[in-house]
Specification:
Elements (H helix, E strand, L loop, with lengths): L6 H12 L11 H13 L2 H6 L5 E4 L7 H8 L3 E5 L2 H13 L6 E5 L2 H7 L4 E7 L4 H8 L3 E11 L4 H13 L2 E10 L6 E9 L13 H4 L5
Parallel strand pairs: 1-2, 1-4, 2-3, 4-5
Antiparallel strand pairs: 5-7, 6-7
Helix pairs in contact: 1-2, 1-5, 2-4, 7-8
The structure holds S-adenosyl-L-homocysteine.
């Protein structure tokens, strides 16, 4: 019998169950997971809606957040990307069990390698808990089509990080499009959403060698 439970909740329950076997997420308490995996993921819906139509990639997706809730809420064709293949294998099993595998696929590999295989293939990419803004800008740029959006889930950003991002953005052909800050329903968790648009070709060849975007950001 079809279940009335929203698919996102079914997905979350299945991930928490799988998490007992394979380490997918640190958050194991159900209420915390509902807050940090479901509510927080969906915070970026307005940004997803202003992105051009087309494919969506969630970079450093781990257990599939924010990628799966945003894929289900928008109906976009989605690719979850994580270099830990074991995580992507488990996530892809869960997606298959829930019948979501035709819309949402997984890529067990580095973001830099995906950019070589599928350059400019995405209209929107997200990243939560992955890297600093300068690294995210560099990793996302070669994946995005012209006018595509990078949506970053950050804790409030320090002025140093913001300054470094403003140096890297023009180098990689990206421009700040918007930023907003909010507090989740627990009244405590502060979330900052920064959105960048791909406005032109990067000034250097991207991706650089695997690892450099995160180890040696262009702002250093
Ligand atoms: N977005 C998830 C997981 C964050 S942890 C969440 O918010 O819950 C960051 C994840 O990014 C890890 O699973 C790590 O394996 C992955 N990661 C880090 N650098 C990467 C890279 N260059 N390519 C692909 N995955 C990467």
């Amino acid at each position: 019998m079809p279940s009335a439970r929203p698919l996102t909740e079914e997905y979350l329950s299945a991930i928490l169950e799988a998490n007992e076997r394979v380490n997918l997420t640190r958050i194991t308490d159900h209420d915390q997971a509902a807050l940090l995996h479901l509510e927080d993921s969906l915070v970026a819906l307005p940004e997803m809606e202003i992105a051009p139509p087309g494919r969506y990639a969630d970079l450093g997706s781990g257990g599939g957040f924010p990628g799966v809730p945003l894929a289900l809420a928008t109906g976009r064709e989605t690719l979850l990307v994580d270099s830990v293949q074991k995580k992507m294998r488990v996530v892809s099993e869960v997606l298959e069990q829930l019948g979501l595998d035709s819309q949402i696929k997984t890529y067990g590999g580095r973001i830099e390698d995906l950019a070589l295989e599928q350059p400019k293939a995405f209209a929107v990419v997200t990243a939560r808990a992955l890297s600093s803004l300068p690294s995210l800008l560099e990793l996302a740029s070669p994946l995005l089509e012209k006018d595509g959006l990078l949506v970053c889930f950050k804790a409030p950003v320090s002025s140093d990080e913001a300054r470094a991002a403003s140096i890297v953005a023009p180098l990689v052909g990206m421009e700040l499009h918007g930023q907003r800050e909010l507090v989740l329903s627990d009244g405590q968790t502060r979330r900052m959403i920064l959105t960048y648009r791909k406005v032109r070709k990067p000034a250097l060849k991207l991706p650089r060698r695997v690892g450099l975007a995160q180890k040696k950001p262009l702002s250093e």
